[in-house]
Amino acid sequence: MDHGENPVSIELQEPAEPVPQLLKLISSNEVAGFDSIMQEGETPVFPNPTNSSQPNGHQRKLSISISMPSSPTGATSAGTKNVLFVQDNAKGFKNGVPESCVGSKAKPKGVKFLSQPMPKGSVFGEGANMNQNPNVKKFKDKRFDSFKTWSGKLERQLTNLRGRQQESESEDDSVRPSENEALPVDRYFDALEGPELETLRASEEIVLPDDKTWPFLLRYPISSFGICLGVSSQAIMWKTLATATSTKFLHISLTVNLILWWISVALVAIVASIYLTKVILYFEAVRREYYHPIRVNFFFAPWISLLFLAIGVPPSVASSLPVALWYVLMTPFLCLELKIYGQWMSGGQRRLSKVANPSNHLSVVGNFVGALLGASMGLKEGPVFFFAVGLAHYTVLFVTLYQRLPTNETLPKELHPVFFLFVAAPSVASMAWANIQGSFDYGSRIAYFIALFLYFSLAVRINFFRGFKFSLAWWAYTFPMTGAAIATMRYSSAVTNVVTQTLSVILSVVATLTVTALLVTTILHAFVQRDLFPNDIAIAISDRKPKSHRRWFNLNRHGSSEHNADIDTFLKFANGDAKDIEAALKISSAEAK
């Protein structure tokens, strides 16, 4: 080696003592004076310091401080070596060794190195477990904040209380979409397809991740109250079987009604509690369901379930109900009907000819159920009012659905059971009018015969109900079958013979088997296959239309004002009729300016 150069020697020094066990338990920034960062201009202190007042030309020792790694594995590496770079002729060193250590048997003390602070959670074993825990990953996922009631603010406050580092508000605001305004109804028709608007179009995107399973509450739809409708209507049917004069020969005990009624009460309480939790934590998802042109009909289901519980209450529980209960239960119906029926009549995107669907029967049948309960309590004017409102809108809805005005398309096989909702309204209407009039007269019989004909016209089409996939919304279509069985028992009590009695038994058995089969199927999908609640795509559509990529060819490189005016005019009428496009193409460039 050329002696003219200043050779640099590297000495590896073993640390005087191993890394303390304390570093594995707590972070370095919690110990006062343990972890300090050297400020600019400070001079490191060595075991044998030299006089700081030295000439500028004097060669000073060069030191490098190696930072302690912030990873968990770095804290446990016992073989870490301190590296000290010095020049051979530096003062205070001889052959790369401090003069204070020459002639001494003791090893020179290692130079104290400075380390960077280790963040919390990086202690050995803790960070790895947190990264591997899927629950922690889901908790940290910010893509669901737009649907949370507090938009993640409560979670950030709890994070601060646990001592975690708070993320900047700007980052959260950047990933959070606009949520102050509800989606317009035309976005649902543009982004979704299918008779119930639950299938996402190929050109659309959703605001929630589609590569993972969403939180349970986001996947819990309002149609879950259909389970309550099916079970609570069974309680009414078995009560009628035990008390009707035409079915006394069966000797049915009221104990069955009592058991089913308590099961219905527990089921309504559980379903309502879960959905109320969704309202509290994910209000944006509930609001999107309410503005959905089809899902809004299922908001009648909770109140219909409560009406069923009031009608099917066992005599051992309550012989009579207070009249005030009827006004309490019917007030939400009146508010919802003023909103929904007004939209049907006023026109726009929510007019009936556009949003008509068999699920609209849920918004109509509640009028007849309320009239049935009110008449059984001895009320007159209120039940007649709701009966008249329901009759008028059922007539319009019946004609609209029969003609299939919205799409003129046949329903897919998965939605064939929804046709049984045609049976619900006339069945309940026949019983409601019988309670209002005091007898099963000709008005009640007309409504009952309509329901019976619709029931048989669907029942004989066996192939019509094959080869479709199970859906949770089917539960809303079980109570029409139960309603038809109850109406048949009421008719059999007025016209008692072998035919009517046999028909009552057959329809009751069919309704019971249907509800039992659906109950078993629901349990299998919920606990075995675990696909009862898939991701609810209908509430996750974007509030903006996807950008269409258009390429214009055969244009000048820089373009001209005439070409630009023609393009703007064409795009303006691109979504119109064919004659509008032709008219737009005929507009002269001078007029386009």
UniProtKB/TrEMBL annotation:
Task: List where in the cell it is found.
Answer: Cell membrane
Write down the InterPro entries for this protein, in alphabetical order.
Answer: SLAC/SLAH, SLAC1/Mae1/Ssu1/TehA, Voltage-dep_anion_channel_sf
The alphabetized UniProt keywords are: Cell membrane, Ion transport, Membrane, Transmembrane, Transmembrane helix, Transport
Q: GO molecular function, one example?
A: voltage-gated monoatomic anion channel activity
* Origin: domain of life: Eukaryota
Q: Which Pfam families match?
A: SLAC1
The annotated region (Disordered) lies at 40-77, 160-179
- Give the UniProt entry's GO cellular component terms: endomembrane system; plasma membrane
Indicate the principal place this protein occupies in or around the cell. Answer: membrane
Membrane topology per record? Multi-pass membrane protein
Bias type Polar residues, positions = 48-77
List membrane-spanning regions: 217-238, 258-277, 298-318, 324-341, 362-379, 385-403, 415-434, 446-465, 472-491, 503-528
One GO term (biological process) = intracellular monoatomic ion homeostasis
Matches recorded under CDD domains: TDT_SLAC1_like
Q: So what family is this one in? A: Belongs to the SLAC1 S-type anion channel family.
Alphabetical list of PANTHER family matching this protein:
S-TYPE ANION CHANNEL SLAH3
Q: What is this protein called?
A: S-type anion channel SLAH2-like
